[in-house]
Amino acid sequence: MSACRTLVRTSLFSLECKLRSTRPTSSSISLPPLTCFSHPQGLRIAPYRVHTRSHASSTEGAALLIEATNPTLEADEGLSNDNVEQLLANPDDVERLMKMDRRSVSLDWGGDSVRSNRWFPYLDRFRCGTGECLSSREVLEAMSPHILDVRKEKFRNVVLNRSYSVCLVVEGLCDFGNVSAVCRSADALGFQSVHVVSCDSKRYRDNRHVSMGAEKWLDIEIWNSTQECFKVLKSRGYRIATTHVGMDAVSIYDMDWSCPTAIVVGNENRGISDKALELSDLHCSIPMKGMVDSFNVSVAAGILMHHAVCDRTSRLGYHGDLTMEESQILLAEFSLRHSKSAISIAQEFAKRKATMFTPKL
Q1: What is the mean pLDDT of residues 28-32?
Q2: Which of 114, 148, 255, 274 has the most neighbouring CB atoms within 10 Å?
């Protein structure tokens, strides 16, 4: 009899546990079945992870994101690891990322299309690789049907606040997570141009997640030596400002950032190299109010860039200073970087354009 009672208790306890395990928790998300949605043609359901948290546990659910895939392109939000490695390992391979034709690195870059004492790297021409060329206006015309309106608005807002008048140079950094963090800050603050001197591509690739893919939207130039980098920057009209704690250093708050300036940050341990200090036009520093006498290099770069934007806005009324023509060219550049399919779409547009203007015999 006792054994029978024990058996009954065990059975009831097992049944209770089973019912408890199948009962939905308060933190779960119930979703309607997919069949209840009526999908317009050209739309698909894409999974999107949503995180919820209850008082005692954390669970993951799923939400539904409807994205237009036809005729619009999906944004390629990051470069592949291979592209990043190739870009950073080969200074002459910048064209792997940059699509519109660029001005020569030659020291005499002056011309009617370049505003005096101000650098802009792109020409109003995209070579399709099949002999045809497109202007920025034609690139935008080709890409417009394939990019969502919300994405195009994002591009316009970003370009409106972009500037080449102040650029960033990172020299000899050891922690390439810092390079990635600097790129992310540069993109967020409206800096289009970043220069990297002496880069270890593998270590950068391993820390690329820190940048959140920001390098896709920046113009990154790689240099083998500080001398080469500074020589080209000076030929483009930049003054070189190296960050250095010394008696001759000028406070960043006393500088006029409306002048074209290249900000140089150096190695985490050694700081700016002696060669960079020698070749720079001035030394600057961030006033320190605490016991420590330096910031982390990525933090320092963020502070420098943020103050430069604030100072330029105070003096000029704006930070982004591209002309209408330059803005259109950069919009075309962003459109071509938007997706891996963008180049083939532009090429097909160029072929149709060539066919239309070919005289019939």
Answers
A1: 39
A2: 255
